[in-house]
């Protein structure tokens, strides 16, 4: 990527999709809407994602400032993921995607 071609610089939709796009990021955000989750909880509700991919996607969402990772100093280690303030602003967008998806499923009888 060239210096003047920063991620989504010219198009806000491109930027948004670069942050939440892909197979898993939107799904992770969707599952965080109803509150913080531990890694194991996310893995359990998304059985088709590998542990490696879940870790990668969580790290990217954290790096982009959309989720917060809280580590508790206990044994065994406890880590929780939740929305940051910036991530909270995506909730309505994610819920709109859910609504659209349900409508599409119904129309297509999926």
From TrEMBL:
<keyword id="KW-0804">Transcription</keyword>
<keyword id="KW-0805">Transcription regulation</keyword>
<dbReference type="InterPro" id="IPR036390">
    <property type="entry name" value="WH_DNA-bd_sf"/>
</dbReference>
<feature type="domain" description="HTH hxlR-type">
    <location>
        <begin position="11"/>
        <end position="109"/>
    </location>
</feature>
<dbReference type="GO" id="GO:0003677">
    <property type="term" value="F:DNA binding"/>
</dbReference>
<dbReference type="Pfam" id="PF01638">
    <property type="entry name" value="HxlR"/>
</dbReference>
<dbReference type="InterPro" id="IPR002577">
    <property type="entry name" value="HTH_HxlR"/>
</dbReference>
<keyword id="KW-0238">DNA-binding</keyword>
<protein>
    <submittedName>
        <fullName>Helix-turn-helix transcriptional regulator</fullName>
    </submittedName>
</protein>
<dbReference type="InterPro" id="IPR036388">
    <property type="entry name" value="WH-like_DNA-bd_sf"/>
</dbReference>
